[in-house]
Amino acid sequence: MITSTTDPRPADFADVRATNLAVVLRFVREHAPCSRADIAASTGLNKATVSSLVADLIDRRLVRETGLTENRVGRPATMLVLDGSPYAAIGIEVNVDYITAVAVDLSGERLLSWRRSFPGAAGTAGQAMATVAGIVRRVVTRMAKEERQVLGLTVGVPGLVGVDGTVRIAPNLGWRDADLCGDLTKALRDPGFPVQVDNDANLAALAEHRFGPYAGTANLVYLTGEIGVGAGVILDGRLRRGGQGYGGEIGHIQLDPFGAECRCGRLGCLEAVAGIGAVLEHAAISPAEVEIELDEVVRLARAGDARTLALLSSVGHNLGKGVALMTNLLNPEVVILGGYYVPLAPWLLPSVEAETRGRTIAPDTGGCRVVASTLGYGAAALGGAARVLDSVDSGRLPRIS
């Protein structure tokens, strides 16, 4: 039986089969190369059912046979691995100063990775939608030339994104109540694949959970280090968005009621005292200059400039206060600093770690490590593609052509 919030209803055969297909596909993803017998023994499905499910996945070109192995007891077995060569998942990140596009195949292999400057707060949600739509069309055209079917698109935005895909507020972009999902679907003229919108920190956390050095970690937090600061939270192996999708806004926790003004209009938010704006000492710079300014900060830090080192130490301590909040509330196994924090990590991490140790009630910071991301500036875009792959893993499989 499949239960719902109303009354129990009999399980539909198609639902059961889709669930079992997803079980087999996930097993192959995690254990390939593996045999049909391996799948049956580990999942509890009988051998006849597994054979039927594997045949279906092969027909869909999600799985392929890769020959025999004799390094086992009994007869040689035909081994299975992921295929997915006809498919692509697309992720897009819209940020204050750039837009990134990533396409991956079913195994997560990158098919392309593009990054271009973007006017950010100087533009409107409509302009961003038009820019994203143009990039998506180019990606889809590229995938079509490679004879790949697009499975879906997810767009990441630095702001509050409702479960319906509406961007309720994105302070650093100046957006309110932007139906980015609906408008983008219309702009793409009903593209034939699902379009989703999510918070950028959520998607970056998904990318780390699937592709990063700490992939599979059950309790993980990703902190964006862009113009804004947000948290993507994985607990017990699942992304946590909150009741309406607005969780993770750690950047707007007030640390200093008399501190610098934040872009949200409040004073002393974590974002204002530990974001990249604080590193750049609240200089009135354009988004296009952020990376240039950061390069100079890195150069000065490497040269041992006392003023720069003191500034980074101060920002690191403030950031550590935010990390300590996360460790006390959530007890993550790892907190990952992303975005612009990555090039500054050699100077930020000592202060972050010291502050976290001093403010975490659990001994040894509850077993939490603080590390820098290795996924680069495209983590949220990669996470957008990961969300599409997650939907495939959960049973939303492409149809047999």
TrEMBL record:
Transmembrane segments: none annotated. InterPro entries: ATPase_NBD, HTH_MarR-typ, ROK, WH-like_DNA-bd_sf, WH_DNA-bd_sf. Residues 24-65 form the HTH marR-type domain. This is ROK family protein. SUPFAM superfamilies: Actin-like ATPase domain, Winged helix' DNA-binding domain. Belongs to the ROK (NagC/XylR) family.
